[in-house]
Amino acid sequence: MNRPARPLIAIPARFSASCSALRYGAEVNARALIEAVWRGGGEPATIHPHAPGGSADPGLVADRLSRFDGILLPGGGDLSPSRYGVDPVHGSVHDIDAEQDGFDLAVARQALHAGLPLLAICRGVQVVNVALGGTLAEHQAGWRREHRNLVHQVDIQAGSALHGITGSAVVTASCYHHQRVDRMGAGLTVTAKAADGTSEAFELLGRHAWFIGVQWHPEDTALPDPVQQALFNALVQAARQRW
């Protein structure tokens, strides 16, 4: 089979209740995210989240992902606490969509099973954590724990894959989240932390597939900051190596 000039990177869409340019509801991805993948040499492809009733068919998801070279799980609304066994739900939890949750979890599981290179951002890393049996803290707030609209420094563990990608022990990260990883899923290890102790990046032990998960939004500053763009470059490079 002839390969395209650019590795195909699948990005599950996010449901949007309205879109002024289209006059209707839409399935979208952030332009900054798409452009960061493109600058990295990838062909970004938005895919439809299909999980009727909140449950995706694993075989269908595997078939759909088989044509792609890498996966990017982007940020978005909150994952339903029912997906990690929490009840009742904290009042701050918002924008839950059962179909989105079911599809994203299935994509994460299939990507890890098939060894597809996977970059998980914000909600995306939370999805991976839950897919691996972990839990989330439903709301992170209080003095020095507010991570909405926050740009701060993150310390990266020496010798980690993230350290090798960024070439730096400290990076400036743009955060927009109110939830975080609580109990870590099987095989995950923390490779970066904020000054307040929040775990900001994760890698997987004992797996040969390429995986990086970051709690911040590298696409926010990837255009002016080559350190953040390096995450997207590394995903595309790992995808190309599968050819």
UniProtKB/TrEMBL annotation:
GO terms for cellular component: cytosol. InterPro entries: Class_I_gatase-like, Peptidase_C26, PuuD-like. CDD domains: GATase1_2. GO terms for biological process: polyamine catabolic process. PROSITE patterns: GATASE_TYPE_1. One of its GO terms (molecular function) is gamma-glutamyl-gamma-aminobutyrate hydrolase activity. Keywords: Hydrolase. The keyword Hydrolase applies. The keyword Zinc-finger does not apply. Coiled coil: none annotated. PANTHER family: GLUTAMINE AMIDOTRANSFERASE PB2B2.05-RELATED (PTHR43235). This is Gamma-glutamyl-gamma-aminobutyrate hydrolase family protein. It comes from Streptomyces typhae.
